Amino acid sequence: MEDFERELKVGFLDEAAQALADTEQCFLALESDPTNAENLNKIFRLAHNLKGSSKAVGFDEMGAFTHQFESFILKIKNGEMVASAPVVNVLLNGNDHLIKMVETLKTDIDAKFDSTAILAEMARIIENPAAENRTNSESQTATEDEIEKIISELQSESTQEDATDFFSTPEPVFEAVPLIAPLSIIQEEVPAQLLEVQAEVEKMVALEPSPAPIPATRPQPIQPSSSGAPAAKAPAAEESIRVSLSKLENLLNFVGEMVILQSVMKEQVLSSESLLLKKTIDQLGKVGKEIQDISMSLRMIPVKQTFQKMQRIVRDTAQATGKDVAITLVGEETELDKTVLEKINDPLVHLIRNSVDHGIEEQSIRVARGKNAKGQITLSASHKSGKLIIEVKDDGGGLDAEKLKKIAIAKGVIKPGVALTEKEAFNLIFAPGFSTKEKVTDVSGRGVGMDVVKTNVLDLQGEISIDSTLGTGTTIRIALPLTLAIVDAMILTYGPEKYVIPLNHVHETVRPTEKQIQNTSGLGDILLLRGENIPIFRLGDFFNRKSAQKNTDMIALVVRSGASPCALLVDDILGQFQVVIKQLGPELQGFKGVSGSTILGDGKPALIIEPQDLIKRKLYISTPTPSATPAATPAPAGGQAA
Amino acid sequence: MIDNSRYLCFNLAKEEFGIPLLAIKEVIGYPEFTPIPQAPTHFLGIMNLRGQVISVMDLRVKLGIKPSRTEETSVIILDLGDYNLGVVVDQVNAVHLLSAEEMGEKPVVENSKNHDYITGVFRKEKHLILLLDIAKALSVQDRSTLSQTQKNAA
User: What is the extent of the structural domain holding A259?
Assistant: First the structure.
């Protein structure tokens, strides 16, 4: 395939994925307000653009399907069909089918699809006399003329609307316009075979022999792409461009290096006499900081798209469980690092499903309890002290601490007779193999899920907590770092070397007195801290390094992020810094106890310690021969360099 | 494919070696680096290359040649596709364009230890240049070396 053609197709798939996310939203809105003309027009435009572009870039099957889909939508738009729940179901299924097509085509550009089932379903709905008020349906599929007419109407409408549009945006309402762009390019630069293909498609789907209609396009600014659909609520649509993630990462690398060089320069300038030089370097530092902040923010995207997907999850889950549930989204514009956002998607789906299935009660129970029959779930995002807080709140039955304990005992998660606070009891739902649902549905209840949710959140350096009142509802709160690229960390020394430990692992630091450290023959050194007995390790023991200092001259970092607390002895703590995490190469992937590296202010790299892995490794190493030193060959001293 | 016959030649002690120019990102002076605990002896540590953290290996130690440190000691940054790797050598000499005729099969040495990483030899005037498959000489084995060291330690 020619590069040009491939490029067009890839570009189209990106746009299509966005347009489909848009249409899904519109379909969901259609269900709650079936007669909203604005919404119907938008749906129709999106569908039409999708059809035109998919055919133009040569995705024949997709073009054929979207044609049928468009005709189906036209019937709703013309009032021949009412957007009842079954109709919206078909629309959503069709949308899913298209999303699947796009996803598959992204990996295999020549993939084939079978759309017969969904087409049959559409035909059945159209044929069904119950789909009332069919006034003018002599043909199953709308003619191209008809569609063309409507499109041109819509266009003139949207041009007129420009001035008074309640979106009050300088942009025309014409959404997903980029979809059309490839089409017009083709017209100018037509590779002959593309036109042939198009002609073929037209024949196959028995259209009129004229080429696909090409809506007249005016030059359009490129729509925001990373942030999904143009924000309708935004006061003015900002122009944006699409940038590859690798370019961004490169930029971040260099900016990071620049900041380091600046700090080196700042130290050097102390010995200089020139006031001007000092001042300039000071200013340069400020500009540098600004550049760093901006480039960091480039990776941040609003949670909107992820949140909106949850509407669909709620709808489907509620339907499957026979409940009536509404979802409210709060703080959709809150921004989060792209990688973090992608990784939080699956946990959120789990949580939302759980809330609908386990949290919200059956309608009859709700009514009996004097609640609104319609369940309410609120999904909100907000920033709080440098963290992103996501809350999933339902007004369901709440968690029953006593019941949770009983189940946990029955399933062997905890031993009988263990006293748990209410909060600890709530946390039982995160235990592997725990499920409170009596019957297993296809939605949830298998007892996997919540523990996976917790693991995922912890992997993201986040925290998860539950708040629940019996009878009135449950709130699950996830606190996430804004970005994975930067972490608050403590820089410490052991011998001549510097190490970095993420701050979230360090619970407290103490300088142990002689009385606090007890040497036991079986368990090694134990730190006695306020009635707790915590095993204590010298950091260097894990790395086969020596420090001249005595235990009592060192500082103990108490780590509580794992299953049981432990303490690490280090020579000194240099301070708390924000460090940029750099991945280690594949040649170091097998290195346990180290999660990555960072570049310190002096320009030298340092290892980032993962205490949990480190302790495991220590236990592993020391179990067979507790007194023997590890058999590893010591690394050569790196200090040769001047 | 044309550039495949260009080799960067360098010295390890008195021996001259060559690696394909295409596998090289750049050559830098001897950097400062942070040693990695419990790494094999030829694994010198990690260095900062303009914001990128790169592992540095000593090819001399790896091939059993005595390391020394002079003004000429350099680090060749290899571009191994998805990651980079630094290799310490004694002296970087020149880029040679080697034609296929000039390249000889490596002499068969019986009973020698594994020398898979030598892909051929090139005779330049009076001395031999050994052509290396650098990935074989270093990374393929080293990827596992580190985890093996840890296993041995256990």
Answer: 245-299
